[in-house]
Write a structure and sequence with these properties.
This protein is α/β, with parallel strands linked by helices and about 120 residues long. Helix content is about 40%, strand content about 25%.
C-alpha cells in the first residue's frame, strides 16, 4: 500500500474534497516557481505520512487554480490552511515545518467539538 502523501487538488474538486470533508484537512496553497514551497514539500510529505488516517493533505497550485486562491485571499505562497469539517480554522502564511504542522494538528485534535 502506498504511503499517505499530499494529493494534488483543483478548484473543481475543492468543495467536495475540502469543504464537505468530515475530519481535519490541510491545504497547501503553493506555486511551482516558489522556492519556500519547494523547501516545505519534504516536511509536508513526512507530515502526511506520519498522520495517515488522522488528516488529509492537499496541494493546490494557485496559478492553475485561482478561484480558491482568491476565495481565501491567498496573497503569498506558501499559505497553509487547516480546515475542520469544512471550516478554515487556522491560516499560516509562509512555510511551515513538519513539527509546526504536527503541533497545530495536535492542538486542533484536542479541541472539543462544537455543539
Amino acid at each position: 500500500m502506498a504511503p499517505n502523501t499530499p494529493v494534488i487538488l483543483t478548484d473543481s474538486q475543492f468543495d467536495q474534497q475540502v469543504l464537505k470533508a468530515d475530519g481535519i484537512v490541510v491545504v497547501d496553497f503553493w506555486a511551482p516557481w516558489c522556492g519556500p514551497c519547494h523547501q516545505m514539500a519534504p516536511g509536508l510529505e513526512a507530515f502526511a505520512q506520519a498522520n495517515e488516517g488522522k488528516v488529509t493533505v492537499y496541494k493546490l497550485d494557485v496559478d492553475e487554480n485561482p478561484k480558491n486562491a482568491e476565495r481565501y485571499e491567498i496573497r503569498s505562497v506558501p499559505t497553509v490552511i487547516f480546515f475542520v469539517k469544512g471550516d478554515p480554522v487556522y491560516i499560516s502564511r509562509g512555510a511551515m515545518s513538519q513539527s509546526s504542522l504536527q503541533k497545530k494538528l495536535g492542538e486542533l485534535s484536542r479541541q472539543k467539538p462544537q455543539a
